[in-house]
User: Which sequence fits this backbone?
């Protein structure tokens, strides 16, 4: 590369100007979370206890495992709605194979299932060119059918495999540890690797990404595989917690995932979002659910709250976009 | 023109945003049956002024006089009531609906709750006749040429009883034939007493279409006169605030090694049997009107467009473009004409936008250091005079067009490409920054022995930028000019 001579002496003065202090994007989320924690601490004596927090986190962990690659997808402007049904199929498959062929083959079959589904989604979206929403909505439908098919519509009991969901090394449930590790790896990947940065670029402007030389299809394909493998892992954890495969266990998982991510500040239009935001969004959803349970609110109200929460979250997304547009 | 009827008069208009005044007391008068051309560099206040006219923005100070009444500002409804309509550069139509539907978009005549198709078609035909344009009513708007769709927008404005039309750079995306057609329509409207405000960057359009010309600079009105016989230099001086240096040809030079060789290239549609070559350190311009095929040739070399036949050699080796990604791997860079759609990652930082094509080189074990990106940006910020007040993390969307373009050029310089393809490199860039960009491109080509191929429809650009110029007409090369023979009149003559 040729050395550049400084063209002029101006410009240097920029360094002197002080950087504008910016409120971190996650600040309002932390605020909401703290507010909810205070609120539930007041309304329920059981809320502010270590065991309860473990409980909240353990419940959130299964959703959280799926949330990490799903955050990648949403930042890149895609979405995967098949994760809930994929988790259900994974749980059923695990129970079936573990009962007949042991744990090792059970886990292997789950991994292979995740890989195959990811390749399938990736192929349909990037090679055939079908909209991801539609592709994975189809997946949500047919995989639920597959989950029912495996157990003939029934749950399948699973013997001798509960450590994945219930073991507590260093006094913390294993699912929480898995989630924490994934979150850290995900965050580093997104921020510091070429792969992660490409995801932001693709989400920000898919056409330009091609022109600057990013292998968009390859990156998308990879991300769909990560998403399905994570969903399969989440399904396995869930089955292990329940000691059974339940075709209905993944119902609504995609809703929780998308709610947490969008709440965490990722834009459905692509290009924006962080793992930290997603984790905070996930905690908000988790604490809300937990608080409602402790307050003896009937479960159907929780469903209503969750659905509304998603709408509130995407409304914020839209309002934020509008504010950004008017700011000139 | 004898008895002039004044339609609207803006007096002493001031406008401030957050205590920053962008208009410092500007007057604007629109008369019936008259076209006033509004000129000025980007940021001179043209858009703000016409938005005030259209009721989108309320002025901070000043009066608006209509008939005998005085107002402090208009709102959108008043503006509509007064028959003020804006025609934007971007289309605002429904591409999947028919021409007739588009003319009445949103205001379809109904009878008893149903759309009155007969009436709709009859009136649509009337308005098209009035404009003397021949477009079938049943054609789908999306299948028409951009220029025709723009005429539909004017037709729609007329259906809504437009008395004052504001046309904001309507010719930017039009071919010369379409531009002439638009001007004919404007002549037609002038004869029918419509008042028009015409915003443009093209100075030669002023004498053709305008009756009066007004120039804004830095929020002030600095020039207002009859458009008849006004000369170009006067206008440029008014826009820039100082006399433009004449179109002096740069010092021509080229490296000895052949970098890019194109032989008998055809795409079977737009261009045919194109052969030329570019040496190291040489800037070659393909000059042609929009639609002549210049930009398509570059697209094909970069792998964005299929090639039917022909060969491309890079440093003597056969290169078959498969995809843009492949071309980037082969050290070919491409600057698109459509910066928004194909160039910018609008919501990402300037540093990221600049280094995105170099991530492959910067990455160690897949990791890209932010510090490396910021260093790259700092280097090019200084070399290219990029003004980004908030540093490397500033969102690129917040920069001016000229600065955005510099970042995108820096992107390929940083990627150390051997061949750089530039399509309309100064589109949407104001006059001042243009010269800067020409200097940058030339300097970089010479210093790093880069072969630069430019597709442009701006002859002035060719004169200022090219070592050598090839004229493309109807998809074929019609002339080649070197050294001091690269002259505007020669280029224009060869391109038509």
Assistant:
């Amino acid at each position: 590369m040729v050395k550049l001579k400084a063209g002029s002496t101006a410009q240097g003065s920029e360094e002197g100007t002080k950087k504008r202090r910016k409120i971190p994007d996650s600040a309002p989320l932390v605020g909401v979370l703290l507010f909810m924690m205070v609120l539930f601490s007041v309304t329920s004596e059981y809320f502010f206890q270590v065991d309860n927090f473990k409980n909240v986190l353990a419940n959130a962990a299964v959703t959280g495992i799926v949330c990490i690659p799903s955050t990648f997808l949403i930042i890149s402007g895609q979405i995967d709605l098949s994760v809930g049904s994929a988790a259900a199929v994974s749980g059923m498959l695990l129970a079936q194979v573990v009962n007949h062929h042991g744990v090792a083959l059970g886990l292997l079959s789950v991994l292979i299932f995740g890989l195959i589904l990811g390749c399938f989604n990736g192929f349909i979206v990037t090679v055939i060119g079908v909209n991801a929403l539609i592709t994975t909505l189809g997946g949500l439908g047919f995989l639920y059918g597959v989950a029912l098919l495996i157990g003939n519509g029934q749950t399948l009991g699973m013997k001798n495999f509960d450590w994945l969901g219930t073991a507590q090394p260093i006094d913390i449930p294993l699912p929480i540890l898995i989630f924490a590790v994934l979150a850290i790896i995900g965050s580093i990947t997104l921020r510091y690797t070429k792969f992660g940065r490409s995801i932001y670029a693709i989400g920000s402007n898919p056409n330009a990404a091609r022109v600057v030389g990013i292998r968009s299809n390859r990156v998308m394909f990879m991300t769909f595989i990560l998403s399905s493998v994570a969903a399969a892992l989440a399904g396995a954890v869930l089955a292990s917690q329940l000691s059974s495969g339940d075709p209905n266990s993944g119902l609504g998982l995609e809703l929780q995932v998308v709610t947490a991510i969008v709440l965490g500040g990722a834009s459905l239009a692509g290009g924006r979002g962080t793992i930290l935001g997603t984790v905070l969004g996930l905690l908000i959803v988790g604490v809300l659910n937990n608080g409602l349970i402790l307050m003896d609110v009937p479960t159907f109200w929780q469903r209503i709250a969750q659905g509304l929460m998603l709408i509130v979250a995407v409304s914020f997304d839209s309002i934020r976009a509008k504010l950004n547009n008017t700011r000139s | 023109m004898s008895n002039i009827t004044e339609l609207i008069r803006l007096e002493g208009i001031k406008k401030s945003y957050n205590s920053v005044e962008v208009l410092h007391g500007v007057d604007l008068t629109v008369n019936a049956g008259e076209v006033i051309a509004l000129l000025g560099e980007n940021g001179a206040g043209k858009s703000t002024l016409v938005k005030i006219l259209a009721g989108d923005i309320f002025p901070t100070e000043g009066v608006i006089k209509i008939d005998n009444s005085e107002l402090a500002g208009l709102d959108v409804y008043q503006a509509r009531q007064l028959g003020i309509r804006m025609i934007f550069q971007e289309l605002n139509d429904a591409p999947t609906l028919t021409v007739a539907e588009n003319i009445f978009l949103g205001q379809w005549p109904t009878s008893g709750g149903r759309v009155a198709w007969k009436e709709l078609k009859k009136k649509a035909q009337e308005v098209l006749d009035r404009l003397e344009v021949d477009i079938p009513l049943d054609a789908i708007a999306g299948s028409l040429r951009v220029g025709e769709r723009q005429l539909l927008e004017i037709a729609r404005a007329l259906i809504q009883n437009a008395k004052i039309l504001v046309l904001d750079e309507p010719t930017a995306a039009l071919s010369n034939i379409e531009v002439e057609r638009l001007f004919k329509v404007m002549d037609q409207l002038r004869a029918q007493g419509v008042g028009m405000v015409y915003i443009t960057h093209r100075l030669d359009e002023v004498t053709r279409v305008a009756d009066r010309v007004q120039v804004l600079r830095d929020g002030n009105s600095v020039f207002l006169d009859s458009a008849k016989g006004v000369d170009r230099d006067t206008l440029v001086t008014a826009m820039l605030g100082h006399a433009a240096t004449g179109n002096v040809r740069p010092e021509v030079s080229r490296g000895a090694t052949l970098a890019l060789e194109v032989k008998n290239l055809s795409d079977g549609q737009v261009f045919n049997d194109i052969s030329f070559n570019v040496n190291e350190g040489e800037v070659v311009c393909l000059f042609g009107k929009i639609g002549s095929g210049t930009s398509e040739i570059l697209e094909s070399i970069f792998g964005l467009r299929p090639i039917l036949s022909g060969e491309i050699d890079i440093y003597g080796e056969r290169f078959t473009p498969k995809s843009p990604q492949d071309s980037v791997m082969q050290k070919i860079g491409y600057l698109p004409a459509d910066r928004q759609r194909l160039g910018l990652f609008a919501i990402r930082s300037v540093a990221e936008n600049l280094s995105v094509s170099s991530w492959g080189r910067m990455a160690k074990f897949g990791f890209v250091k932010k510090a490396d990106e910021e260093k790259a940006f700092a280097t090019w910020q200084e070399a290219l005079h990029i003004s980004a007040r908030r540093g490397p993390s500033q969102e690129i969307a917040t920069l001016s067009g000229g600065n955005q373009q510099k970042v995108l050029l820096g992107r390929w310089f940083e990627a150390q490409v051997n061949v750089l393809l530039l399509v309309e490199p100064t589109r949407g860039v104001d006059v001042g920054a243009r010269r800067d960009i020409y200097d940058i491109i030339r300097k970089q080509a010479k210093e790093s022995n880069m072969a630069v191929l430019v597709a442009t429809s701006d002859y002035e650009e060719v004169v200022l930028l090219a070592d050598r110029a090839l004229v493309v007409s109807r998809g074929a090369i019609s002339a080649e000019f070197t050294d001091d023979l690269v002259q505007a009149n020669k280029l224009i003559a060869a391109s038509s």
